[in-house]
Amino acid sequence: MFNNHAGINLTDTKLQVVEINYRDDSFYLETVDQIFHVEHFSPELPEEAIIDLLQNSMEKLNKRKPILAKNVSFSLPNNFFRIFEIPFDDSLVKKDLIEHFRWELSVLYPDCNSEDFLLQHIEINKSPLIKEKRAIVIAIDRRHVFALNKFCDKNGLQLKFIDNVHLASNAFLYLEKPLIDNEISLSIYIDQKFSSVSAMDGVHPFYFKVLNPDSNNIFVELTETIKEMEEFNLSITDFKRVLLYGQDIAEDFEQRLKNFFGLPLKKVNPFERFKVEESIQKNPFFKMKYNSFTAAAGIAIRII
Fold this sequence. Notes:
The protein contains ten helices and 14 strands. By secondary structure, the chain is an alpha/beta fold. The protein folds into three domains: 5-78 and 142-170 and 270-303, Nucleotidyltransferase, domain 5, CATH 3.30.420; 82-138, Dna Ligase, domain 1 (2-Layer Sandwich); 179-267, ATPase, nucleotide binding domain (Nucleotidyltransferase, domain 5). Strands 8-4-1-2-3-14 form a six-stranded mixed β-sheet. A five-stranded mixed β-sheet has the order 11-10-9-12-13. A three-stranded antiparallel β-sheet has the order 5-7-6. Strand 2 (14-23) and strand 3 (26-36) form a beta hairpin. Helix 1 (47-64) crosses helix 3 (142-154). The N and C termini lie close together (10 Å).
């Protein structure tokens, strides 16, 4: 039986929530809201400071409309993760594979203690595009997981999932899986500083890159990304479309992206597959800011 599930996306400045419920044989959008934090949410914050910041934002949110869900999941910004892609030997047992990934993490990020991180990976199988088996490895500091767990315990919530903001947004691809199984596409997540690009074969990512946060020209970064597609013998014309997610994307920037890629570009509306009550339809976040809620909605549908 499906119970209410709330997806919470944390940016450096705000908490965004999307709550969904299943009733009358349909999924309903129950809540779309956001609250600005009292201070910036960053990986450097101590564990207790993270809990206090989230508590403050959640209490403000609940004063407007309490979240009914007891099951919650979180998506976090790109800068909360260490993400890299490497080839690997699939004959390794799981324990040895994780140790291999942990060793690579220590080499690529020598400023980090690899033992402080929890690791997950996405396997990329051999295909006409991929010459050797590879993995996209996603590492998150244990402190941040512990902080989210403690916050949930404090509020009587059950923590289900934690994911990267871009990968959470990509969850909507699974709802289109039969239609896009043989489609090569790009997705872009636009953030205030830590934007990212992912290339997918059907629903499966085979490339992921966080763009240089110090660059003052995203189109230079995107040009370099397209050149890196040559590794897979791909050019821009091999991609069928570009999916656009992210925070506060202006129309003129969206048009510049369309002109840059010369491909069909879809600014994803994460709410179009849900049934919606009239009160929600009048919500300005639902009507005008829908694209900025792709991560919160994406992590909310993870349980479907």
